[in-house]
Amino acid sequence: MVRTRNFALIAAALLLVSGCGHTEKKQARTAGHRLSAGGKARAAQAPPQRPPAQRKIDCDRLKCVALTFDDGPGPYTNGLLDVLKKEGVRATFFIIGQNVHGFPSAVRREVMEGHEVGDHSWDHPQLTAMSPAAVKSQIQRTQDAITRASGGVKPTIMRPPYGATNKRVGQTIGMPLILWSVDTEDWRYLNTARDTRVGIKEPKPGGIILFHDIHKPSVKAIPAVIEGLKKRGFTFVTVSELFEGRQLTPGQTYSERMPPKPASPAPVTASPPPTGSPAGPQPSQSRPQQAEGH
Ligand SMILES: [Zn+2]
């Protein structure tokens, strides 16, 4: 990365007015607030960037799926971002705090291109074996690193390493804990053909797919996975988009978006109809895949 003295000076000036207090080279702009006069001058040549807004997607009606990538950022993250951009797909990245300093611009790019960033701990320990203070530190350091690198975006979801959690850890973390419904085991096999097959075949509507963007074979599989899932009629959403309209509780685990009502097998009972908008569109015209067991 090229650093010029001018850039450093401008960055330093911006940092002073923004109160960010961290030397993050030329990407020092904050998420677009509190621009000084100098900031405005700078904005004339390059408008301040903000992350695009979260979309409103009705995942009760559409076949939604959330691609998630763990343990980055790493050397393949930018290539993956290129693919996602080309395909118009938004994903979620569960970031390891200690990896951020090597690839801060990848984190910045993730948020600016509409992806979601989540906390995946500082260095991937088993949190259930740690003291609450140590767990807190794992989370806080990572939150800080991501917030700095992204220009002000602080994660609101967390994925515990290995999916290992308990009540105490959940309470300490204080964010919804996002697991997965499809474990591709990409890290185990490191096999693009297998990743592709599993990634296309296994997801169900409302699902969360686990990949790792630190593995080259996984990243290589993603164009075909996206193509295959599009053919199956899936809409790609971030984790927060997936759970839109659902109340997520801090400390609780979530591995998929469940159907709105327990899709009762047959209306034998005299239970009243769902209290949806009566004149609204029909809840679903899709095939009965949502009724599949989970
Ligand atoms: Zn992990």
From TrEMBL:
<feature type="region of interest" description="Disordered">
    <location>
        <begin position="27"/>
        <end position="54"/>
    </location>
</feature>
<feature type="domain" description="NodB homology">
    <location>
        <begin position="63"/>
        <end position="237"/>
    </location>
</feature>
<feature type="compositionally biased region" description="Low complexity">
    <location>
        <begin position="277"/>
        <end position="294"/>
    </location>
</feature>
<dbReference type="InterPro" id="IPR050248">
    <property type="entry name" value="Polysacc_deacetylase_ArnD"/>
</dbReference>
<feature type="compositionally biased region" description="Pro residues">
    <location>
        <begin position="260"/>
        <end position="276"/>
    </location>
</feature>
<keyword id="KW-0378">Hydrolase</keyword>
<dbReference type="InterPro" id="IPR011330">
    <property type="entry name" value="Glyco_hydro/deAcase_b/a-brl"/>
</dbReference>
<protein>
    <recommendedName>
        <fullName>NodB homology domain-containing protein</fullName>
    </recommendedName>
</protein>
<feature type="region of interest" description="Disordered">
    <location>
        <begin position="248"/>
        <end position="294"/>
    </location>
</feature>
<keyword id="KW-0479">Metal-binding</keyword>
<dbReference type="Pfam" id="PF01522">
    <property type="entry name" value="Polysacc_deac_1"/>
</dbReference>
<dbReference type="InterPro" id="IPR002509">
    <property type="entry name" value="NODB_dom"/>
</dbReference>
